[in-house]
Records
---
Amino acid sequence: MPHFPTSYRWQITALLFVATTINYLDRQVISLLKPTLEQVFNWSETDYSHIVMAFQGAYALSFVMFGWSIDRIGAKLGYSISVFVWSLAAMLHAVASGTVSFGVFRAMLGLGEGGNFPASIKTVTEWFPQKERAYATGIFNSGTNIGAVVAPLLVPWLLGNYGWQAAFLATGAIGFIWLFFWWRYYETPTRHRKISPEELSYVNEAPQTSGESSVRWVDLLARRQTWAFITGKLFTDPVWWFFLFWLPSFLASTFKLDLTKPSLPLIIIYSAATIGSVGGGYLSGYFLRRGWTANWSRKTAMFVFALCIVPVMTIQFATSLWVVIGLLSLAVAAHQAWSANLFTLVSDLFPRKAVSSVVGIGGMAGSLGGMLFPLLVGSLLDTYKAQGSIATGYNILFIVCGSAYLVALLSIHLLVPALKPADC
């Protein structure tokens, strides 16, 4: 990795990492408060799934809106709007009075949070050459896990000392602090005063198509490369949402985990995901530096990570909490490693002017899958809970999760067997 008089691109990555951490901290709060809120508001699993669906539906719409707008107004302003909306929405949860109002504020949260990945991938594409993008993406994407690690420490403490409302107020307020630093320190490389000429030349070494006009969605949807990313997100995003929103509840119902106290098992699981995110981005970059093509580098790495998720299907045979924690840790780590490479495919396949739009389209597909999957989850768990065997419902879900990534990778390969860049 070259060294220059400045390495400002890594400071930009740090900003993306912190924002992504806040993003996932805000959305994780409700899953940790779920047992408390179920008692306060008398929620069923189906009620909770409807609240999750409200978030997912708005999140899907937000991906499209921000994906389109960020390619036009830029990452600086687009990201600022996104963080402002989601931080305000997170704080408004404190005044919710029932299922409907929680659904409304979750939808508002989703409308804001959908801007995180289009803005981040756009920024990485602008600030990094191809061989470093997966690694940079893995670093900022690891913020999803740090947020999920911080939440089991912070939220129970806030709940125990100040009540559930304080958990939403405190976590939501953090985003407004980040906004100050983003607005003050971010700019595109060609306009940034602190980047050295050597680093600027290195950042811009990847060839670009002529012109910077945006690409029409109808043209993007006509490309097999777009559908490869859509397919990858559609099959695997719902699995991550399941891990995020239902793992605390699964451990509480199956192993009597007390979610009113800091949870070591959850901290271990999401810490493993952090390692997977950074390591996953590094692995395909390592293959590229060894002279492999982007096609072999990305797909080999993704195949390895897809295989690592398969063992989660064996949770049904595990009787020890720590065996289950090990299997879940491997699965979430592999998902984040997979995700870092899936996002990087967009910058491999599309010019910078189309990156946010494609991320938005694919993110919408993943969110729609994430919106429909809770219908299955809620219905399945309620059915087996009524029969006194909720563990059976979870076992079925883990089988679905364990097989999704191999199916997704096969679909991606059939659509883009050679990772040929789109002509747009």
Note: The domain at 8-203+214-415 is CATH 1.20.1250.20 (Growth Hormone; Chain: A;).
---
Amino acid sequence: MTNTDLKVEKDFHTIINERHSVRKYDPAWKMSEEEINNILSDAILAPSSSNLQPWRFIVIQDQNTKEKLLPIANNQQQVVEASAVIAVLGDIEAYENVEKIYDLAVEDGIMTSEIRDMMVKNTRNYYPNAGKEKLKEIALVDGGLISMQLMLAAKARGYDTVPMGGYNAEQFKQLFDVSDRYVTVMLIALGKSIAEARPTVRLPLEDVTFWNEFKN
């Protein structure tokens, strides 16, 4: 099986309309490291607070490891049948990378040294003093942004996904020895679907959109 069997989409409108949560995957379909890296490379273009990019990924392809993850993820079969499960984590101390990030911006010629120094100073002044709950909130928001971008990138390349919040976060962190510096955002099953996604509906736009005011 090759990626020539996949339906690759280029039109964004088609991608967002055809992306649905899929729970049935071909267990024989193996994605290459290159394919997964291409999807992740698209995903990391997502925005983040102060461009600190707090997301971290654990790509789980080993079948034995997926079997260990299965009961932690409430025995959702896509965990063991999808080509990979990508765990999205958020680094609440992402500000520790601020010098590296802005040094790269200077090297690429998209930022002056003066602006770099100002951004580093502002980041160092704010984030370490923001409090753990605020840093967790930022990491979860940024983690949500990149998770959605990851799922759209996968769909554009012919693959399907399903985001999963139904798992025991503490047991997951124990299994992968994840420290308290990181918060779990979600698990995303990734692979080739073998069944159509269940149709869903959306509330009318007028039910969720308010102009210049908010009505409870």
Note: The chain has a mean pLDDT of 95.
